[in-house]
Amino acid sequence: MSRKKKRRRNAGILPSLEDLLFYTVAEGQEKIPAHKFLTALKATGLRSGDPRLKECMDTLKETLKNTADGVTLDRHLFKKCVQSNIVLLTQAFRKKFVIPDFQSFASHIDELYESAKSLSGGQVADYIPQLAKFSPDLWAVSLCTVDGQRHTVGDTKVPFCLQSCVKPLKYAVAVHDYWHRVMNFLKKLAGNEYVGFSNATFQSERESGDRNFAIGYYLKEKKCFPEGTDMTSVLDFYFQLCSIEVTCESASVMAATLANGGICPITGERVLSPEAVRNTLSLMHSCGMYDFSGQFAFHVGLPAKSGVAGGILLVVPNVMGIMCWSPPLDKLGNSVRGIQFCTDLVELFNFHNYDNLRHFAKKHDPRREGGDQRVKSVINLLFAAYTGDTSALRRFALSSMDMEQRDYDSRTALHVAAAEGHTEVARFLLEACKVNPVPRDRWGNTPMEEAVHFGHHDVVTILQQYTDKYSPPADADDKESAEKSLDSLL
């Protein structure tokens, strides 16, 4: 930031990011209850337990201990809590993540979940005794976007074994790391969330793995292994890999790491090389769903891997990773509810690999905000000022909207607020957004003249306070800088 811009911020001409975030969450109040901030944060898709927000959350916890009620924060304390993570928080509240309207998207996911929940077909895998113990009613979906937005629904904290879902992951290990440090690698892939081991499942698989032993010895006969390979050790290692436990939530981060080109979204650590991810996704796309792989690639068009424990690891490249889990399987060994969810997901959203062909736009794209924002912004801004919707104006300010933009008649939001007598709107525009208090419309009228004309004396008083101390920019450079939106503060 230039020294000139720093001087303007210090002089109070430009609000800080922390100020705008406070105004957005506080909605006109002088203090913010901590739970209100956390609820607003959750609506963006971020979690308070996100490793990237650790400093912010630690400071929040310590700060609340020293407040009078242990619950609320004034503007000064709020700024102290968020300043360490202000860039990430600002991106979240400005809806600059890959899924801008995350609440709406999450509600669609919940609807797809409920639709698949009603399915009752399929059989829980029983050829491995340990898997047969799971209830057929268990059903869970978790997702994690490449920006670390999280959503879960159902039995997402119940541990289950990856089974064949581990195959693309261990293939990625082989490509990237030549089989070293498998469990450590999987934990990094999951952003250090839950990754365990089920010894009971391992023993169960080993005792019932006749087919795998037969296949192993057949491969050995055909010289598929290096000389001197110990088949028992190889199969034990395979059974151990299949017995690695995850939850839907931790597995969704694994899938998101693949979607993000090998970088874990919630830790920022590169776990896999781009080449390893490319090769892994290519295999998942072509043969990840047993004998259903061709139909899945045709109808869903996304890389995925299923397992007989009922999991489906689904990757939407550059967008998100999803783990679906429900034990009942169809005749081909895939989760009945999981297949239905994946199919419904791609029917609703344009996630299929070929949905983005030119002139093909029949589905929702949650990656984009609706409509032409440049055309709508003036209308939305002035309408909010007309109706006195200060909450909307706070959101606009945080999302980098130019709060001084004008309509065809060169009228600003302050003109409209003054004419309608909305004191809170006028105060917010002047105090938080630092707008010019004396703009003139096409007829030469200022907001002050509008307020006087319509007899809104409270607005006149507020405008007078800011008009008296307002001095226009000294030169073109100052004017341009003063009119910079929130983006200039980043």
Automatic annotation (TrEMBL):
What biological-process terms (Gene Ontology) are attached? Answer: glutamate biosynthetic process; L-glutamine catabolic process
Recorded family membership: Belongs to the glutaminase family.
**One GO MF term:** glutaminase activity
- EC number annotated for this UniProt entry: 3.5.1.2
Q: Provide the catalytic activity annotation.
A: L-glutamine + H2O = L-glutamate + NH4(+)
Which Gene3D superfamilies does the UniProt entry name for this protein? 1.10.238.210, Ankyrin repeat-containing domain, DD-peptidase/beta-lactamase superfamily
Key word Hydrolase present in the record?
Answer: yes
Signal among keywords: no
The protein's UniProt keywords, in alphabetical order, are: ANK repeat, Hydrolase, Repeat
PANTHER family in alphabetical order: GLUTAMINASE, GLUTAMINASE KIDNEY ISOFORM, MITOCHONDRIAL
In this protein, which residues make up the domain named Glutaminase EF-hand? Answer: 18-100
Q: What is this protein called?
A: glutaminase
Which top EC class is given?
Answer: hydrolase
Q: Cite the SMART domains for this sequence.
A: ANK
What stretches of residues are ANK repeats? 409-431
Stretches for region Disordered: 470-490
Compositional bias of kind Basic and acidic residues = 479-490
